[in-house]
Write a structure and sequence with these properties.
Shape: globular
Number of strands: 14
Radius of gyration: 21 Å
Number of helices: 10
Distance between the termini: 29 Å
CATH class: Alpha Beta
Strand content: 15-25%
Oligomer: single chain
């Protein structure tokens, strides 16, 4: 008779021994929070709070939100979702004239758990009107240098913050994946496979192959000696970013990597309501084709864009990962006050 595997016993995160082991990481996180708030205050930002339970959590094809239900005093109910980002809410505030704003937001993404992923985590997100990609990269670099030591080490990788690397997706795929002209290939999966010297797997789409090459060949080289800003993504991979006026094949999006860890995702924001609606509808169709969850289109957000959002750039930075880098932690559970038990090991 086969025996049932026994899960290793995990000390509860509230146990004095467990908390004491994490306390140096948590104290470093607390200092990091204070320093980040001081950085934004000095830069003229206002700290805001926006709702966590929303009617529409976003249109990301591959993110899975948590569902909840609001009960009204008269007995009515309304399905709501725990947001996966405060982005839509913060952009509404830009429309209202809030000016430069930032937020430490709790966000939820179902089905995520690893050494660098938690299903509930903290996003540091900020937006500045009349800002472009170059200025946002400079400001993000200044934040890193203000809240971290000159050299940081996390998960066995040391990164010198004194200078940064900037790579476009086109350059990165050429250098690390052997694809000489990613943009010229377009969304042609067989041609991309040939250019990369790989076999197209059964049922693999261009997007599937793009991310396989990105994860397996490109990202392992990023954010190691110095922080890497990976810029100018194919327009199909930047649903909320403005197309580059100089090359409409790409959008003004960047991701930031430090200590080999993906740390942030940023856009020069799309402010055209008609184009945003079309992108939302395309993403909704893709998500539904994959059997994903559904919710109403966020008409209020589209109405805000139509009313007039100022030109702006914004960035979402994984604050727990920044805390890992600051503290030299190996796992995200070490920088959480009460992590789920599966993130304790």
């Amino acid at each position: 008779m086969a025996s049932t595997p026994v899960s290793p016993r995990v000390t509860p995160p509230w146990h004095p021994d467990s908390l004491a082991a994490r306390r140096p990481f948590l104290d470093r996180r607390a200092r990091l929070t204070r320093d980040a708030r001081a950085f934004f205050a000095a830069g003229g930002y206002t700290e805001v709070e926006t709702p966590y339970a929303v009617r529409a959590p976003g249109e990301e094809v591959h993110l899975r939100p948590f569902a909840t239900l609001r009960e009204f005093p008269d007995g009515r109910t309304e399905p709501l979702w725990l947001h996966t980002s405060p982005e839509f809410a913060m952009k509404r505030l830009l429309v209202g004239g809030a000016g430069p704003i930032f937020q430490f937001a709790r966000v939820w993404r179902n089905g995520e758990a690893s050494a660098t992923h938690a299903p509930e985590f903290t996003m540091l997100e900020w937006y500045r009107p009349d800002t472009g990609m170059d200025d946002l990269i400079a400001e993000t670099t200044a934040l890193l240098q203000a809240v971290l030591p000159p050299v940081v080490t996390c998960r066995g990788v040391s990164t010198d913050l004194s200078q940064v690397e900037r790579l476009t997706l086109q350059e990165a795929f050429h250098r690390h994946a052997g694809v000489a002209d990613l943009l010229g290939i377009g969304e042609d999966a067989p041609a991309l496979a040939v250019a990369a010297g790989t076999r197209l797997r059964d049922g693999e789409t261009w997007e599937d192959l793009f991310f396989r090459l990105l994860l397996e060949r490109v990202e392992p080289h990023l954010g190691r000696d110095h922080p890497t800003y990976l810029t100018h993504w194919p327009a199909a991979q930047a649903a909320l970013a403005r197309r580059d006026p100089a090359d409409p094949r790409v959008a003004e999006r960047f991701e930031l990597f430090v200590c080999g860890i993906e740390l942030a995702n940023a856009f020069v924001e799309l402010t055209d309501a008609a184009e945003q609606r079309a992108r939302f509808q395309a993403d909704r169709a893709r998500r539904q084709a994959l059997g994903g969850q559904d919710w109403p289109l966020d008409e209020d957000f589209l109405a805000a864009l139509a009313h007039g959002m100022p030109p702006a750039a914004g960035i979402a930075l994984g604050f727990d990962r920044l805390a890992m880098i600051a503290a030299g932690a190996d796992r995200i559970g070490q920088v959480l006050w009460l992590p789920p038990e599966d993130l304790m090991v």
